[in-house]
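Risk register update: the risk that structure generation would not scale has been downgraded. Supporting records follow, first protein first.
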Amino acid sequence: MKLLAKPPEKKKKKRTTNDSSPTLSPSSPSFSSLPDEIVVNCLARISRSYYSTLSIVSKSFRSILSSTELYAARSHIGITEQCVYVCLRDKSYQFPKWFTLWTNPNRANSMIEKKRKKKKIIMVPVTSSNFPYVSQSTVVVGSEIYVIDRAPSSAVRVLTCGSHTWRDAPSMTVARKNAIIYVYNGKIYVMGGCEGLEDEPWAEVFDTKTQTWEHLPDPGTEARKSYICSIGEIEGKIQIHFGTLKEMYAYDTKQCKWENRVNKYATYARPECMIENVSFSFASEGGIYRQGQFRWYGKKKGYWKEVKGLDSLLQRYSKNGGSSHNTTKLVSCGGKLLLIWEGYMKHNPNNRKKIWCAEIGIENHDGDELWGNVEWFDVLHTVPTSLEPPEKKKTKNSSPPQSPPSSSSSPSLSSLPDEIFVNCLARISRSYYPTLSLVSKSFRSILSSTELFAARSHIGSTEQCVYVCLWDRSYQFPQWLRLWVNPNRTLANSMIKKRRKKKKKTTGPMLVPITSSNFTSVSKATVVVGSEIYVIGGPVDSEPSSTVRVLDCCSHTWRDAPSMTIVRMNALACFHDGKIYVMGGCQGLEDEPWAEVFDTKTKTWQHLPEPDTEVRKCSIYSIAEIEETIQFGNVNETYAYHTKQCKWESRVKQKLKSECMIENVSYGYWNMRLLWYDNDLQKDYWKRLEGLDSLDEMYMRNGGSSGNTTKLVSCGGKLLLLWEGYMKHNPNNRKKIWCAEIAIEKRDGGGVWGIVERVEVLHNVPISCQLLHCLVVSV
């Protein structure tokens, strides 16, 4: 049924609907109207590739998506993603420009599809430093990028990718020029660049935890005077290839010493990136390998091997300007390789060039061969011919992207994939669901889906909800309703306000109808098991019954459970340790089992041992689980069944039934008084809950009495008192269902006080209507 906002000039009409959503304000609902902490918690679980689209929704979204709180939440819950950062330099730029690669989640594959569609990856500018570094010495540590100046300098700058801000790190011990930098095991190794001076340390290491620099042992005169071509780590050693030496050098990080004459074929190719402990490299120039070749390092055989299946990509690489004269970078991101290079064009009147990108998936064939599969290939950016990308870094990052060019179509949170959308909604309180259900049909469909509540159960995002059952002869079936609490309510209640203001008050709690069963039972034997309510036996149309019906409070649907072994009427039931105990209601027949138990795991019924005649003939008005026993009886007599010993006990010491519990303190309603019992003190008497005199007066003034049904439950750490209130002057023959919300406060001296936060009318019903049940379910 469509829920439409009425035009303001027309009078609102009462509507009858089967939807569980209460009548709300006609103002347009919005996901951003939720509290900031909930929105941040939801957005933190969404892939960053959607942030650019979401940032167009509203200013509040854009503010949250760029806030430090969002990325602190991502870090706290352990949701990080690999992001690629690119730095471009040109003489026309005042400072080097930094970009992040934004991946379009709705991308198309340009190598497969002929028609040009939206780009998969584009370069989005981020905040650049006002420090004119154009260094090749750049490494990634966690979610930060460390940059060392190319000119003789000891300064170190750090880009924090979570907030896109720059800061200064401790300077090196000496000024260096064109040094080589490498990070391994949380430490940054810097080598060379010290102008060959013998009295200056040729290499040093920076500990990112202690934020201190330390000199490395001297490698010798021959190494100090050589030019470093490449550096990388293989098998725990920092391996260096010198341009003027035939031999390779390695620094053993564990033994803190240098080695020479290492296997040059194992180190000739610099390990540029790694996927699942396999090193990858790309040779844009010749050497002992042919030009333009992808290679991987096989540790078992100790040499580099070619990645197969990339001949078509290498042809495109050469065709689109890739060569040894142009910069080429290779990184791994999300388990795939990204190859990025500069492509000069033959006919280029505007003196421009393009930055190309290819995405490559890796497959293992027979364990000894690796094959590449080109999944995407396109232009990332067009830049001046004099510009080159000096650095391209991958970080585990949660940083806020800038908004890329987008289509003119209006973005929507519901445009996210269903699994992400469900994951977000599962973390929102159910009190917001009625508002969200008005947003669109897709929202309403997901909010009523079983997948949503399966997700809530999986992540442990359950909350307590109150369900009420009403019965009247005018009803075809008993009516089940859920207590909906307005999350934007005010704590001021009708007990405090002396004068009624003309301004419209915030909608308070109300009873919202849910799907009712076609089962006409008005049985007292009703228990809660997890997120389900079991309604057991009769009377059904004034007759006994063995039928058991179950209400799934997640989907608000009914199903049949296995029937009892005999028909019962006005039996009582109690749930304990995964089992439902049903007693009485068997019409006093000696040959029928007086009590039976249902195992909710095996879905089977089993008879309990037969009690003596005194127990069978007793009148049962109440039943409860107390100290591993099922205690039942009436005002004068109390009996018990020991669940572990499987035996009956007659005339046990009578205890007031505990209707609910908060922090191991039991609460009950007895003789129109709220009482409490501290289970930790092990005292055998109940005390009155103080501070409720005004509530007692309101209870009596609004029809509360021993002759009317009163229910007490605990929900969300507070007490809820519901009662039927007859009115003295009632021409329409109606009565009201009242609700008082009571907070609990423990005071010095061991006393417990109640603070009434709200007293309101939940529902108007016929005067003959009965308040059958009030149950708390975790959903």
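Supporting record for the second protein:
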Amino acid sequence: MINFRFLFILLLYCGALFAADYEIAERTQAITIQTLSLATEHHSETVRILTKGGTSYRKFLPFNGYVTIKNVTGTVTYPDGHTHQIRDDDVFEIPVIESARMMTDAKALLIVPPDLEKGTVIQFEYDRMLTSLLYIDPWIYAGPEVIRKTSCSISFPSQIPMKYYSTDPDMHGTKGQVGDTVNYTFAWSSKNSTELHQNFDLEEDVTSRVIFVPEKCMTDKWMLDTASWQNVADWFSRISQLTYTWDPAMDAVVNEVTSKYKDQEQIAEALYEYVQKSYVYTAIEIGIGGYKPHFTAMTFQKKYGDCKDLAFLYISLLRKAGVEAYPALIDTRNSRFFLAEFPSPTQFNHCIVYLPKIREGTWVDCTVKNFRLGEVPAILHGKYALVCDGPNTLIQIPIDPDHTNQFILNMGGAYDPAGVSLSGKIEVSGLGSMVLEQFRNALLKDRVQSYVYNILFESGVPIQTLKTGKVEDRTMELSYSIPVEEAQEFRLVLVNPVKYEGLEALPLNPVKGRLYSFGAPMRLTVNIDLDLRGHQLVADPIDEKEKGKYLMYTVALVQDKSNLHYSADVYFSNGLLDASELTAYQQELRQFQAALQRSVVIR
């Protein structure tokens, strides 16, 4: 499901890779709502080039079938005082490709001011003509670009009311009304814009903005009412109600599964496996296709589709087999910015499936591979999903560390005065299986050992004789040895070699005004069983458990006769933190690292 607003932010980021090299001296935006499906916007901007690096400045203006950009004009003023009027040959139309597996009607105009140098000032303006009010440009007032001053106004007839929400709760518009025309104005200025640490999730997650949504509008021939989530769900149900078409060849798929299984959960599992193995994610989203799925019979025949297409195909197969199922809209971006009190389809960018009568409610994502029924990509945990086509209600997906992206290292071995030899296997679930897929591809190139070392182990850990064995869908055999180092009269023996890169990528000294993100959601588990062969452990047992706001972990070390049992289990969700939150997170991380770094020696 394409989200044009995300595309806008993505293109904004492309123009802001070196934001410190230029600044937005002033930006204005004036929006005029004319009818339930027509609006115009006028934009103007003044950009100042600050460094030599800023001479690569470009302005991207995205558009699609509902958006037309007109009247692009501007002036470039150089440090010596001479000017250049932006001409047609300074503006290029380019295709926008969000993914190699996505085809849309999205394009962009690229403004390329010529011969830029330090000190140059660029002034330009343009108009946007909209035939859908869902594509009103958000007003961006802080983000990766340095914005000194900016303002926005939106006017609309009182009979076509608009609503807005801001990522900053302190940002409010000033309301006025003349006759039947209502107007909101917003203004912002600052010497410093919000900055972004280089380890980010999505640029949209860290951009301060105000988003405008109509309370009612036309979307092609369907009326959208955003007064409640039930109304939004009803709108999606109406635009997709004709999607459920049946190809007679689909009977064979259902009959094969129902002849083997009678239990609904087993049927759902088998059909989920069929969809994952038989279809590829390829999105063709033109016009309303960003929200409206294609016919299920077409998806079945073509063997590809986007999230909506695959979800509706799966639902069609399930319903034919007698399993209750519904489509659900959800947002894959950071939950920090989802507003449950602000109904709008623009808050979603993904479609999944809800099975209400399996395991007291099971969520299924049909775009992933090698998942089992009940496993939900961890990036969806804790998110709100709008279940449509019947329930028409907002439901929060539970946070479930036991059914997430898991990476488990189970190793066993024996102590020897010269070193420790360990063998075992890696087990994965969810998106962790993608790591094994990388290993499998590396196996074909005879490079598995280097892949394992670089991805799995901390740099510098003295891993020796690393060997990999059979690689299956969710497991891979592994063996390695670690030399025993002298430590006075004792010998250091136990080292947890696993890399916790996603947790440690944040700075120790957060800067106020910056936002930071850490790692993809993951649960990492290390289990080591070691035969001490008569030697004695010289260390206190470890039994630490912590369920903090950001990390949940346990680290345990026990000795049972001549055997040593070690485990470290940590779960972290994807996070987007400001400076004050980062300080608390760092404290939890230091506690976890201290538990990992306990020295364990053998005598």
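The chain has three domains: 4-219, 225-392, 403-602. On this basis the risk owner (M.S.) recommends closing the item.
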